[in-house]
Design brief:
44% strand; eight-stranded antiparallel beta sheet; mainly beta; 396 residues; 15-stranded mixed beta sheet; Jelly Rolls; 2 domains; 27 strands
């Protein structure tokens, strides 16, 4: 962590900060439903080693300009509100509020894209899973935000274990009905990308009302609910054909989709080198299904994935495509959409192995699929055994 401070001199400031910090701790402990103003000072935050935090005064205010993550040290809450002012500089910056955190690699965020005032994606939500953002997989979790022309814009986040809403000033509201971490964590804090500046941070803890989860989109009929999933591997292109020997360095495991049918791969697999946004290396996993058909038939298969993908049926390559951020122009976002494409699968009678390669750099590693006509198909996760077992079973 790199930390820069420009504090006022004198014991009065230190005494004032100590008194406020003590008040915050007492309020968090007793769960009083009133706002605690958090001092913008190093002792208020746990800042990761890779983050850069600058504590300084801006227009007479204590402020924190942040590149990275800063978790509050004296607050832990599953339901409540976070209010903070962000500097409205107009330059590209992402001012993010952390909540529902399990640890420093897994937490919820709702945030303002400060350079997108008035745009339909000015406010967004994404979970951070194993250190990676997933906004490309959540194209409906965004809203218009108006930041106006004042120097500071106030963000207010209200959240429970299963839902949240984010406001920017008096204009713009983002509502999230289904939080992806399902209320498992209680860490809160701030996160910055491209060094936004925060001031006047307030936290309010409320009683956990235990609201029921309300997924915004339920999985469609015929959607795949469980996949076999390979280990993470460095991406060096998709091979022209695929065999178990290509994929058996580690045994596969079963991965389940979310209620809307999306497989959040980062929930199950960590990138070999990640957390650096567009500077990440590209990694790949393979997801598979075993499909039993009573006869030779052709079925429609609707799917999408992020970022790059390849579809194999019984080892034969059917399709390769690229849905990466900016792959089709500077404004192309690579948003995830289950209805993006439909592929006709020529199944043979008996067992068929459907394997999909998914390569990812950043912004959302995911897969969703649906059989538009299941009929008498039997669909199960494909589990490729370890290479030693493959060698054993492949012997004549």
């Amino acid at each position: 962590m790199k930390m820069i401070t420009t504090p006022e001199d004198g014991p009065s400031r230190r005494m004032r900060q100590a008194a406020v910090a003590l008040g915050c701790a007492v309020a968090a402990w007793t769960a009083l439903a009133h706002a605690d103003e958090v001092p913008m000072a190093p002792e208020s935050f746990s800042i990761s080693d890779s983050s850069v935090a600058e504590f300084k005064e801006i227009e007479g205010r204590e402020a924190l300009c942040l590149e990275g993550d800063a978790f509050l040290t004296d607050h832990s809450l599953r339901s409540g509100s976070i209010t903070v002012d962000v500097l409205n500089s107009g330059s590209r910056a992402f001012a993010q509020l952390i909540f529902g955190g399990i640890d420093e690699d897994n937490f919820e965020t709702a945030y303002a894209r400060l350079h997108k005032s008035g745009q339909p994606d000015a406010l967004q939500y994404t979970p951070i899973l194993n250190g990676e953002s997933n906004w490309q997989l959540l194209r409906d979790e965004q809203a218009v935000g108006e930041y106006g022309k004042e120097t500071w814009t106030t963000l207010r986040l209200d959240f429970t274990p299963h839902g949240a809403s984010l406001r920017a000033g008096d204009q713009g509201l983002l509502k999230v009905d289904h939080l992806r971490l399902n209320g498992k964590g209680s860490k809160v804090g701030l996160k910055g990308l491209f060094s936004p500046c925060f001031s006047r941070l307030q936290v309010v803890g409320t009683a956990n009302i235990g609201d029921a989860a309300n997924p915004s989109r339920l999985r469609s009929e015929g959607s795949v609910q469980r996949w076999g999933l390979s280990a993470t591997m460095p991406f060096a292109g998709f091979p022209p054909t695929l065999s178990k020997h290509n994929l058996s360095n580690h045994p596969w495991t079963v991965a389940e989709v979310d209620p809307d049918g999306t497989l959040f791969i980062s929930r199950y697999r960590r990138k070999q080198a990640g957390g650096a946004f567009e500077e990440n290396e590209v990694d790949v996993v393979y997801a598979g299904l075993s499909i039993d058909s009573v006869n030779d038939t052709t079925i429609p298969f609707s799917f999408d994935l992020s970022d790059k993908g390849a579809v194999y049926l019984n080892g034969r390559l059917l399709l390769v495509y690229d849905n990466s951020f900016r792959a089709k122009g500077p404004m192309f976002r690579g948003d995830f959409n289950l209805q993006a494409q439909t592929l006709l699968l020529p199944l043979q009678a008996g067992r068929n192995d459907l394997v999909i390669g998914i390569a990812e750099r950043a912004n959302g590693w995911g897969l969703a699929a649906s059989f538009l006509r299941e009929g008498s198909l039997k669909v199960e996760p494909l589990l490729v055994p370890h290479s030693a077992e493959v060698a054993q079973t492949d012997r004549p």
